[in-house]
């Protein structure tokens, strides 16, 4: 291809869409590599990558439909990722047998406190209808939240954003809260992070310790499953 044809392709809708996909993947893996060597919260991929991508898309004036033309396939990968959650449940079945009551209470408390806090926020803060309905399932992991939000009349993309914000906040405030509440056990930290900050919380729990990470992942998975299965009933209660 000549230089002019290459430039025409880059500036075309297809070229911009492909560039957007490559940009998203590059930003994620770049942030992941930086965070590997510099463990500061603002370099975490869940924080840095969305900010950099948003700034670049805005400044390069890439239309959102063009950006999502190919990047939506990344979101589609959440479906097989959800199925893969069955692996840690099977692998850590002995841990589930060892602490069934603690994990069960953590799942129940995390599920209902997450929905009740969201409902109270929606009740007392005037928000657009779409945002209000999308907010109700913010306390479960993205694959489960995007599946469950339809029962509440929410918008999956908005729900994913709310989940992201919830996870980042939980990841940032967890350690000061653990000190303040004097939570010292691996089980307590893992359940708390998995129940309140889902994927980001599980990643943070893994940084704290291996057992914390495993427990956080199990809690996150069970809460997500409970939300998806109970979404039609929860929607009748909270809407």
From TrEMBL:
<keyword id="KW-0472">Membrane</keyword>
<feature type="transmembrane region" description="Helical">
    <location>
        <begin position="102"/>
        <end position="122"/>
    </location>
</feature>
<dbReference type="Pfam" id="PF04172">
    <property type="entry name" value="LrgB"/>
</dbReference>
<protein>
    <submittedName>
        <fullName>LrgB family protein</fullName>
    </submittedName>
</protein>
<keyword id="KW-1133">Transmembrane helix</keyword>
<dbReference type="InterPro" id="IPR007300">
    <property type="entry name" value="CidB/LrgB"/>
</dbReference>
<feature type="transmembrane region" description="Helical">
    <location>
        <begin position="158"/>
        <end position="178"/>
    </location>
</feature>
<feature type="transmembrane region" description="Helical">
    <location>
        <begin position="6"/>
        <end position="28"/>
    </location>
</feature>
<feature type="transmembrane region" description="Helical">
    <location>
        <begin position="40"/>
        <end position="58"/>
    </location>
</feature>
<feature type="transmembrane region" description="Helical">
    <location>
        <begin position="70"/>
        <end position="90"/>
    </location>
</feature>
<keyword id="KW-0812">Transmembrane</keyword>
<feature type="transmembrane region" description="Helical">
    <location>
        <begin position="214"/>
        <end position="238"/>
    </location>
</feature>
